[in-house]
């Protein structure tokens, strides 16, 4: 059982928002909901600051950037909905194909390395205190040689982290509030949200469901899920995730070559998220650095979360080539190093021991097996929706299936699926306006749950 | 060829960087292409590298110069003693269970596992009205401080400060509250300008001073009058021996004006394991009445994905009946080290502060420049310390000595120091 997110909701605007399906607002007004049993604690939904007039207030202004955010981060919102649903139907077997949370045990070769490191920490010879903020040397070298062999990325270009999500925010802190950014639409919400928090964006524009000053690069079936770069405005930073969360699309070599060229012409920096690279089944590139010239325009973020089931263990990395420099010639890696030394204190040494085992020969084999298992899940889900006559995307190079429900509100579809089949998915609009009309089904789950979920989908949509 | 760890300095009188040897590895000739992205101007304001990697670099240099010397590090506050068995085995077991179907866990709550949040509230904030839901588990105080967007270096990075004034070594737009022997290491608040945020560390790193109840009452009063928010760093509270307050929430009214940050690093030896927490009381409100906790929760959910579950298992074990006893003896070991070092410095006739409520000694060398003293101690005794000016201009005449270390090294260091005079 995964831990239930205890969500202290931020003020949820009662007017249309990206996260709130119009029909569901009545369930979310101000109320204290006590969740018994496995879920405990009070989930308070506040539609306005609920304080008495006499309560003491400091004279510190709220960070106005946080006020720009429309609602809570997407995934705690999904969790909240799931929890509310479980309360409503205590006997239902709720199956979670929503949050991309891994479910299969971590291979023993990896966990035993972590156990050993834990025990070692209780011995005089094995104890270690602070580690290098950039990560343990051996691990950095092993990541470089495993994922970037022959691509010219070396040990000291690798910065080990507690995961891609943290790195994305550290990168935003690095770039500062004066940069402009572009994202795919739809995209993983952390890119946009962290941009808002850092003050890079304008206000949220409700009519178009976009934040001012962000360039949204639409990715749809019509353009093969690769943006038409000729219509994209120049920005300083371009976030690009491939294989993509949520659409599952992996950009081709040709497409990435165009992207790199685009970045070069504009003097932009690509932040390439390759967290799902090991899911690639065809010959699509697994790293941006496979593209010539990429080292001058890109840095890459990745993670052990979806390869080794490290979602709770917390380990990832960012690779920054030496050739990547600012307009004044100053190396980006040097400033990132400073950020890492000041705002971070290294990933957990136990997690790093696990990471080292992950990239051993045996570990890599074991990770491929875990990935293979989830890929089989993905195939089952793809087949199911195909057989029901849906237009289905993704699912080949990523553990996500992107199902089209033309003309429908994705939150409505999400709610209907949840209500009628007790299966949690993720509404596409949670990833941006380009996700409206789609549902993301994640393929992480025990095989029997995935099969059962598919049976229920068949029932609902036959 | 560019080396990511090369050090560069902008000479700043007050910070005193006497190292002529360090050269900046220039990558400009090597790189033909430049992006058109401007470097974040706030990064340019940072004066030099973060202090502790700097000390490491000096240590490395010294060891190269004297390959046979037994260098003893009383510099960076890095713990040295092994973890208690009960804590290590709980983490080993947790890790092992992750390879089983029933024991596997994926994403945890970003705020931390409920059990641990509750245990922290009950252990450290008993009877202070702080509940588990006001506790946010992190991967350590250093990270939390940045998430709170403050402290001098990350303050500079986030852009809250102005440029540094070369003469004084201070950043513009930061109010520096001087703490020295002259004011018993508690700032004269009547001279302090109003600021939105007040960072206060007690027991203090580097001075070792633990503020008294009366002093903290004054601080809370000051914050209330000014409508400021205190960020209270209590990472060393466990080292208090004299009954000084261990938490800001011991002071009535603090729950309306203060956030508290703490860590398992110096309690349980978790410097490498990475675990800490931040308390944000529900009663702490922004000027418009909006609860600070709601925004902090949003930051934690967006910019972070929770502390490692394995570390959290270790944290829980360290707060169990058995584990708690074990960590207390761990801390006692370092406290005894501090006593030994305190005696040593006092026997040398040096005014020494701290060492009683914290694992740091703050040794006064009146009229001197701390980097010079640092170099002299290093050169003559092969002991690494930390020059006081690394912590701010008022540290200029002081050296910080940490009490972390194997007992034999502490004793050896004492021997060498005594032989200095």
TrEMBL record, chain A:
Q: Which GO terms describe its molecular function?
A: pyridoxal phosphate binding; transaminase activity
**Would the keyword Membrane be found if you checked this record's keyword annotation?**
no
**Cofactor(s) annotated in UniProt:** pyridoxal 5'-phosphate
An example of a Pfam family matching this protein is Aminotran_1_2
Give every Aminotransferase class I/classII large domain span: 93-457
Q: Which GO terms describe its biological process?
A: systemic acquired resistance, salicylic acid mediated signaling pathway
What keyword terms does UniProt attach to this protein? Answer: Aminotransferase, Pyridoxal phosphate, Transferase
**Family of this protein:** Belongs to the class-I pyridoxal-phosphate-dependent aminotransferase family. LL-diaminopimelate aminotransferase subfamily.
Query: Which NCBIfam families does the entry mention?
Result: DAPAT_plant
Protein name according to UniProt: LL-diaminopimelate aminotransferase, chloroplastic
Organism (species): Sesamum indicum
Which gene is the coding source of this polypeptide chain? LOC105169336
TrEMBL record, chain B:
Domain Aminotransferase class I/classII large positions: 191-416
Kindly indicate whether the keyword Transferase belongs to this entry.
Answer: yes
> SUPFAM superfamilies attached here?
PLP-dependent transferases (SSF53383)
| Pfam families found in the cross-reference section | Aminotran_1_2
Tell me which cofactor or cofactors this protein depends on.
Answer: pyridoxal 5'-phosphate
One of its GO biological process terms is: systemic acquired resistance, salicylic acid mediated signaling pathway
Q: Keyword Transferase: yes or no?
A: yes
Q: Where is the signal peptide?
A: none
Q: What is the name of the protein in this document?
A: Aminotransferase ALD1 isoform X2
Q: Which organism is it from?
A: Sesamum indicum
Task: Supply the gene name.
Answer: LOC105172820
């Amino acid at each position: 059982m995964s831990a239930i997110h205890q969500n202290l909701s931020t003020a949820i605007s009662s007017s249309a928002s990206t996260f709130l399906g119009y029909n569901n607002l009545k369930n979310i007004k101000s109320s204290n909901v006590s969740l018994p049993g496995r879920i405990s604690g009070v989930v308070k939904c506040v539609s306005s600051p609920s304080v008495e007039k006499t309560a003491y207030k400091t004279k510190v202004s709220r960070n106005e950037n946080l006020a720009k955010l429309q609602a809570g981060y997407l995934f705690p919102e999904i969790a909240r909905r799931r929890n509310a649903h479980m309360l409503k139907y205590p006997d239902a077997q709720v199956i979670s194909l929503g949050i991309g949370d891994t479910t299969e045990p971590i291979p023993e070769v990896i966990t035993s390395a972590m156990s050993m490191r834990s025990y070692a920490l209780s011995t005089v010879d094995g104890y270690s205190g602070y580690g290098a903020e950039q990560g343990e040397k051996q691990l950095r070298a092993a990541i470089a040689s495993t994922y970037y062999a022959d691509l010219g990325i070396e040990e000291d270009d690798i910065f080990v982290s507690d995961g891609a999500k943290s790195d994305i925010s550290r990168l935003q802190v690095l770039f500062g509030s004066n940069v402009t950014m572009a994202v795919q639409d739809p995209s993983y919400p952390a890119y946009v949200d962290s941009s808002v928090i850092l003050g890079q964006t304008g206000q949220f524009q409700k009519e178009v469901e976009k934040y001012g000053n962000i360039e949204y690069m639409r990715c749809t079936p019509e353009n093969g899920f690769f943006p038409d770069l000729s219509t994209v405005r120049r920005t300083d930073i371009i976030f690009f995730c491939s294989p993509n969360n949520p659409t599952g699309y992996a950009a081709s070599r040709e497409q990435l070559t165009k992207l790199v060229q685009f970045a070069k012409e504009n003097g932009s920096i690509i932040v390439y998220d390759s967290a799902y690279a090991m899911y690639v089944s065809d010959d699509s590139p697994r790293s941006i650095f496979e593209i010539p010239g990429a080292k001058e325009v890109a840095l890459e973020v990745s993670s052990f979360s979806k390869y080794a089931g490290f979602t709770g263990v917390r380990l990832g990395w960012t690779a920054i080539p030496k050739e990547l420099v600012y307009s004044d010639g100053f190396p980006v890696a040097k400033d990132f190093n400073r950020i890492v030394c000041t705002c971070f204190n290294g990933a957990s040494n136990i997690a790093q021991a696990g990471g080292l085992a992950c990239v051993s020969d045996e570990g890599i084999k074991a990770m491929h097996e875990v990935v293979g298992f989830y890929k089989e899940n993905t195939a089952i889900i793809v087949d199911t929706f195909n057989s029901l006559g849906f237009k289905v995307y993704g699912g080949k190079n990523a553990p996500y299936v992107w199902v089209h429900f033309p003309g429908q509100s994705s939150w409505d579809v999400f709610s209907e699926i949840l209500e009628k089949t007790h299966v949690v998915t993720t509404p596409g609009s949670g990833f941006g306006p380009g996700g409206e009309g789609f549902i993301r089904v994640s393929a992480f789950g025990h095989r029997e749950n995935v099969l059962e979920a598919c049976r229920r989908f068949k029932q609902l949509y036959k | 060829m560019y080396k990511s760890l090369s050090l560069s300095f902008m000479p700043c009188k007050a910070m005193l960087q006497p190292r002529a040897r360090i050269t900046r590895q220039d990558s400009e000739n090597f790189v033909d292409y430049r992006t058109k992205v401007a470097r974040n101007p706030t990064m340019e304001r940072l004066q030099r590298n973060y202090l502790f990697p700097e000390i490491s670099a000096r240590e490395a240099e010294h060891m190269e110069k004297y390959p046979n010397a037994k260098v003893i590090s009383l510099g960076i506050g890095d713990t040295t003693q092994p973890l208690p068995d009960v804590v290590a085995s709980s983490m080993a077991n947790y890790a092992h269970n992750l390879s089983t179907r029933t024991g596997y866990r994926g994403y945890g709550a970003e705020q931390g596992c409920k059990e641990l949040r509750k245990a922290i509230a009950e252990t450290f904030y008993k009877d202070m009205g702080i509940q588990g839901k006001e506790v946010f588990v992190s991967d350590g105080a250093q990270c939390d401080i940045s998430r709170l967007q403050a402290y001098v270096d990350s303050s500079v990075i986030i852009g809250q400060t102005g440029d540094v004034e070369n003469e004084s070594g201070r950043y513009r737009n930061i109010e520096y509250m001087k703490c020295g022997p002259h004011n018993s290491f508690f700032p004269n608040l009547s001279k302090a300008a109003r600021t939105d945020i007040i960072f206060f560390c007690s027991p203090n790193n580097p001075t070792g001073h633990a503020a008294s109840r009366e002093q903290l009452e004054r601080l809370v009063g000051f914050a209330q009058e000014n409508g400021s928010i205190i960020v209270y760093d209590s990472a060393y509270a466990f080292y208090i021996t004299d009954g000084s307050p261990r938490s800001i929430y011991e002071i009535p009214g603090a729950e309306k004006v203060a956030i508290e940050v703490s860590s398992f690093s110096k309690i349980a030896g978790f410097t490498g394991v990475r675990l800490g927490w931040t308390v944000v009381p529900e009663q702490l409100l922004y000027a418009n009445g909006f609860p600070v906790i709601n925004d902090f929760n949003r930051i934690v959910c967006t910019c972070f994905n929770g502390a490692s579950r394995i570390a959290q298992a270790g944290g829980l074990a360290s707060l169990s009946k058995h584990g708690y006893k074990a960590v207390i003896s761990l801390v006692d070991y370092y406290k005894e080290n501090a006593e030994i070092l305190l005696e040593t410095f006092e026997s040398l006739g040096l005014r020494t502060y701290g060492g009683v409520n914290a694992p740091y000694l703050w040794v006064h060398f009146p009229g001197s420049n701390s980097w010079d003293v640092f170099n002299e101690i290093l050169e003559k005794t092969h002991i690494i310390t930390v020059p006081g000016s690394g912590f701010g201009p008022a540290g200029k005449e002081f050296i910080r000595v940490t009490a972390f270390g194997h007992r034999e090294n502490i004793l050896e260091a004492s021997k060498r120091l005594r032989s200095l005079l």
